[in-house]
Design brief:
By secondary structure, the chain is α+β, with helices and mostly antiparallel strands. The protein contains eleven helices and eleven strands. Strands 2-3-4-10-5-6-7 form a seven-stranded mixed beta sheet, sandwiched between helices. Strands 1-11 form a two-stranded antiparallel sheet. β6 and β7 form a beta hairpin. α2 packs across α4 and α4 runs parallel beside α5.
């Protein structure tokens, strides 16, 4: 924590986010879902997708490019699949109900898959895989996003950060939960650097000359106007496997577009042909797998638990005292943040004060 940061109790911050969404016209039940997704990110130490993103949703709703009331429409449905149109509503709400549909189908038929079109940013991808874990299932969640990743050997932003989330229950308290973008980093982390007035590490972003860029404010502007691009997992070229990250990003784009006949690639930029802002029209894909349809849940949990335990017990590199498995650091961070509160830096404090003032929200004795 820096000198400019203050710690805010989790419950107070979550209540504030609910009040902000309600004041913007989001129904209270939906506002609670949105706030729960955001606070889940803060609890897990993922600053890029927690309360730090609240102002983004605030601005998009006020600009009319994201609708506070979600019109969740089932376009087509079979016993194990569904196609949903989110109507440009709250992405968290759309994704929550879509994954719940997949879980319900998997409970009855073993597998459930739901494709979504015309959605918006839905927060951390892993939240929805975790929903399946809580039901004794394996959960997979994918979303495309506005273009920011350049293809290998290219410099134009074409693919979104296109995260992949995979979760499975174990016989430990901590499940296995992988949640990662298919780029080296995502815009949210660069926004965190911007709020902290820090440069972007070399190797994350390239300019139109194919050179690394580190000027954080310029990068945030350049990503919008195609002057900068994020690099896929593996980085520049093929030497360290950049083509593999590029391939995974393209895989997510296909899952999130070709099963729902919606927008993709540069059509997700959020501008119409005349340059006017419009909804982002994002696509998602959710898959729930009912473990009990294959083997007893307890046996599967024991196997997955043994896998992660063996990985953690393997030989450590010199100077390293611990090996982690996916989701373990975040699981431990939740306990810390629940006890100490969410760190809120100076720039975020300003955003919170702005929303509080403009919406006339009172009754919060924030320590800033």
């Amino acid at each position: 924590m820096t000198d400019q940061e203050v710690l805010v109790p989790v419950e107070k911050l979550e209540r504030f986010m609910v009040d902000v969404f309600v004041a913007l016209g989001v129904p209270k039940e939906d506002a609670a879902i949105c706030a729960d997704v955001l606070i889940a990110s803060d609890l897990r130490g993922i600053e890029s997708h927690g309360v730090g993103r609240l102002k983004m949703y605030y601005d998009r709703i006020k600009a009319g490019i994201q609708y506070p009331v979600t019109d969740f429409q089932v376009v087509k449905e079979t016993p194990t699949t569904a196609l949903v149109d989110g109507g440009h509503g709250m992405g968290h709400v759309i994704a929550y109900h879509a994954m719940q549909m997949a879980i319900d189908k998997a409970r009855e038929y073993g597998l459930g898959a739901v494709a979504v079109r015309n959605s918006t940013h839905f927060g951390i991808d892993g939240y929805y895989s975790r929903m399946a874990i809580k039901e004794g299932m394996i959960g997979l969640s994918f979303t495309n996003a506005r273009p920011s990743i350049a293809p290998t050997f290219g410099v134009q932003p074409m693919l979104g950060t296109n995260p992949i989330a995979f979760g499975a229950p174990t016989d430990e308290d901590c499940p296995f939960l992988f949640d990662g973008a298919t780029s080296i980093t995502q815009r949210g982390k660069i926004e965190v650097l911007d709020r902290a007035d820090k440069p972007t590490p070399e190797g994350w972003v390239v300019d139109q000359q194919g050179e690394y860029a580190t000027d954080t404010p310029a990068i945030l502007t350049g990503l919008v106007v195609d002057e900068h691009a994020l690099l896929p997992l593996g980085g520049l070229g093929e030497l360290l496997g950049g083509h593999k990250g590029y391939g995974l990003a393209a895989m997510v784009e296909i899952l999130c577009a070709s099963l729902q006949d919606g927008a993709y690639l540069q059509d997700l930029k959020g501008f119409d042909p005349d340059g006017q802002r419009r909804p982002f029209m994002l696509g998602h894909f959710f898959l729930a797998i009912n473990i009990a349809s294959f083997i007893p849940l307890e046996r599967s949990e024991a196997i997955t638990g043994d896998i992660v335990q063996r990985l953690r017990a393997s030989t450590k590199a010199p100077g390293q005292d611990r090996i982690y498995t996916a989701g373990e650091k975040e699981w431990e961070m939740e306990k810390v943040v629940q006890e100490q509160g969410v760190p809120v830096n100076e720039a975020l404090q300003k955003n919170i004060r702005t929303m509080q003032r403009e919406l006339g929200l009172t009754g919060y004795d924030f320590p800033f």
